[in-house]
Design a protein that fits this description.
single chain, 191 residues, alpha+beta, four-stranded antiparallel β-sheet, 23% helix, globular
Length: 191
């Protein structure tokens, strides 16, 4: 108890906590296993570090740091998406010299994927949520810190896409750790 002349205790207000998040396509076990196998094979010729199997994904929209209190706004944006399931074919390996990564990507970006990204970006913009607005280049990062090498042809990997997720990224002892926070099924009309 504060006595005379002792200032009253100040109430400590916790700072708003932020998390780093992004929307992504999250592969099923068949696609994940195939991507992991490709990463292991490419690592022998390109060096670098393979993306941990459990972290393999294709980013749709990178939001970045956002207050935890605003996660429900992200869920609301995603819940309003009306997009049909589609097939994504990853059929080329690329080496991005500037980033020193090797990735798997589609030769042709399917219209439904572009539409899904456009709907997410539009919803985020209307909600006043900032996000990375660089031109969209769909890819799955397989290797980091790789060196240039002649890319072998990639046998087409068909990925049936039936949903998308909101992922939290946190720093861990073994590098980034991803945790799926929410998942939405793709359907042409929202209920």
């Amino acid at each position: 108890m504060a006595g005379a002349g002792t200032p009253p205790r100040q109430r400590v207000i916790p700072r708003l906590r932020a998390v780093r998040v992004f929307f992504a396509l999250w592969p099923d076990e068949i696609v994940r296993s195939a991507l992991d196998l490709h990463a292991g094979y490419l690592r022998r010729s390109c060096g670098g570090r393979a993306t941990r199997r459990e972290n393999l994904h294709l980013t749709l929209v990178f939001v970045g740091d956002i207050e935890v209190a605003r996660l429900d706004e992200l869920r609301s944006v995603a819940g309003a998406i009306a997009a049909a399931p589609f097939e994504l074919v990853l059929d080329q390996f690329e080496y991005w010299r500037r980033n020193r990564i090797v990735c798997a990507s589609p030769l042709s970006v399917p219209g439904p994927l572009r539409e899904l990204v456009a709907q997410l970006e539009g919803g985020l913009g209307r909600a006043g949520i900032e996000f990375d607005q660089r031109p969209y280049v769909p890819h799955v990062t397989l290797l980091r810190d790789a060196r240039a090498s002649a890319m072998v042809p990639m046998p087409g990997l068909a990925w049936p896409v039936g949903d998308f997720v909101l992922v939290q990224s946190a720093s861990g002892a073994r590098g980034p750790e991803y945790r799926v926070l929410a998942r939405w099924a793709l359907r042409a009309e929202r209920q």
